Amino acid sequence: MQLLISSVCMALTSAVIGNAYFQKQQFYPAVVYITKSNASMAVIYIQFFVIVFMFGKLLRKIFLGTLRAAEFEHLLERFWYALTETCLAFTVFRDDFNPQFVALFTVLLFLKSFHWLAEERVDYMERSPVLGWLFHIRVGSLLTMLGILDYLLLIHAYNSTLVRGPTVQLVFGFEYAILLTVIASTTIKYVLHAAEMRTDTPWENKAVFLLYTELVIGLIKVVLYLLFVVIMAKIYALPMFVFRPMFFTIRNFRKALNDVIMSRRAIRNMNTLYPDATPEELRLSDNICIICREDMVNHSKKLPCGHIFHTTCLRSWFQRQQTCPTCRLNILRTPAVNSVAMPRAADDAAGAGAAGANAAAGAGGAQPAGNDDPNAVAAAAAAAAAAALDLDGNMGRARRPGVNGATTFSELFAEANRLPNGLPNLGIPRPPIPPMPMLSPFMMPPHFAYFTPPPLPPPPMPQDLSRFSDDELRAMEGDQRKHIEQRLKLLGNINLMLDSVGIMMNQYQTLTARLQLAAGPSTSTPAAPPATGDATESPAPAAETAASAAETASPSVYDMPSTSAAARNQQEEARQLKTAAGLGSGVAVVAAGNGAERVTIEDLGADEDDVPFTATKSQSLGNSEAEVDDNSSKLNELRERRLKFLQDNNKTANGSEKTTSE
Amino acid sequence: MAGSALRRLMAEYKQLTLDPPEGIVAGPVSEDNFFEWEALIAGPEGTCFEGGVFPARLVFPPDYPLSPPKMKFTCDMFHPNIFADGRVCISILHAPGDDPLGYELSAERWSPVQSVEKILLSVVSMLAEPNDESGANVDAAIMWRERREEFNSIARRLVRKTLGLAT
What we know:
- The complex is a heterodimer of chains A (662) and B (167).
- Chain A is an all-alpha fold and 662 residues long.
- Helices cover 74% and strands 2% of the residues of chain A.
- The longest helix of chain A has 39 residues, at 481-519.
- Chain A starts with a helix and ends with a helix.
- With 167 residues, chain B is α+β, with helices and mostly antiparallel strands.
- Chain B has helices at 4-18, 116-128, 138-146, 148-162, and strands at 24-30, 33-42, 53-59, 70-73.
- The longest helix of chain B is centred in the first third of the chain and has 15 residues, at 4-18.
- Chain B: GO terms for molecular function: ATP binding; ubiquitin conjugating enzyme activity.
């Protein structure tokens, strides 16, 4: 078909030229004759297109070899769109419509199609099992050639615009600028793919690089398009012909931006909140990452729902969606929820040096056998997270009074979290964040600490007020409207938080009551007090929080790193730890009590380990040794009962768990 | 090192070859291109499609398994959940987010946990039990719901056709 057309065309052209020669016998008259005759010119033009087409085929043969079916299909599709847009562009520039103009557009389309093909080829790299050196030479030279051509044409367009003012060259300059960005992104992709091929292991960060490349190139393109539309609208008319590509570019950019933001959040959550899977856990599972179907040896993460994947696989999945691939648990929702349980985990991490050892010792004392301590902390974090999540999920269905307050609990925390930062122009340096590793700024725990000021009513103003300048003091006074608004907001939040704490306490108490019933009345009475005692303390300081926080609008903002402040910080930490432990265990039990699925015995054991830890901590607050021992023995009892309870519970839960994991 | 999509497809191919589910054969069209598979699906027993062997083609995206493949029957099909051109419309093949017919739960959508095997098994069960609410082929859906006999006879004719028998 193509051969037929081109040979017919060839014949026509030679007929036209031969006819001209035959009539005029000389070169110049013949040329003049041809250019004067419309029919001859039409034939010549068609011949010109055929030559361009053949030249394109030749180049394709050299640089790309045979096209795959998919490549050809895409090329054709895009070519028709581009052709339509070119025709639309003609309407804008109908005044300077001449052969040169058409030729320029032909060259543009010609180059464009090679850009598309190069893009396709580079995308194909990822899919093909083996690529020879020929492929690399071809792609490399094609990209270089296209890049140079784009650049030269862009410069030409720029210069001609400078010399002759805005003409159609404006469009070409813009088009070549866009093509340059395409070449840039294709080259980056090529380099990334090639780099990955050279190594034997999957390259973890490639997906991240690709995403960012897309984002940056997308931004450049969007800016270029907007600029172009504005300029064109001012000089000529609205350039309809760029609307379609502009729309797609903007959409892609938005998607890339969204992906980057969401995946960053999810990945950060993953890196900070979720523990690496331990060899133990890997051994217990089937040890195959279900995303890539390969063995998990190292670098795998356990999500709060208990599913384990490669860190890299999760990362690339999170760029699409922020859910657990297996059970679709929303990963982004968990950090806020985690804030209930996280302070404890964070503290665990913070105190890993001294206090951690303490905790381990405490745990060892409390339960001499059968508990794998190294995993305990991580497992506790996971369990608490899962439990907290379950709580959040179950609360909605629980139909208890005031449940509404509780479901928004996490949001509340998140909002309250932002508030200390909400008074930015106080002109006072923010106090240094307490040294808690693995915490990103948007996470809850460090700020959470601000919300549990010392137990006694006197507001915790820094003692050495003399250090502040007058201006700073005045700023602290905060008599402006927005400060008052912030305070009121804060108060409202505290109120809501208190409500939800109350609800949680209620639940906890009902559950302990239920537990006692389950375990039998004879042993139940002595065991309950330590835990509830721990926990019931929490509302009281929280109430005081309301009062003192109201007075000073988050006092810790004024915290100076003096020694007394540090000491107080510690106290706060300890207290908060207590609250958290109380809440955390409460949560765990609530989850279990609701028939909720995911609390395993191992997890609970780990969970308990923290309670002795709080006990040792609270020692510094003035508790006596004897009390601590007393506590731990009581806790032991309680633990045993809970274990039993959970064993029963797990049996029933196991069935449903299996179905969900499948 | 080849891309992760390729490795996963190879792994799935191996798995399907070593331990094929009943009534399903699937593999790449050619060893050069692991991103295009053809599959043969036997019509489930006890249904109007019993005895038929239906060829289909699966096309995988470069970012498989993060995105689902596309599946298309290459023979004539008359079924409520198969478009007239052979494209299969089941929720497992749709990425969460895009919802062509606006009724699917995101829990039924594509996720990397799914696999070729699961897709094909879902298709088999789809053949056995059409979902007449999705309505990729509305005519088929209505006929299936209201004139089951007619639907069955069309299906049996298709079965004979795929087997190369005279209708």
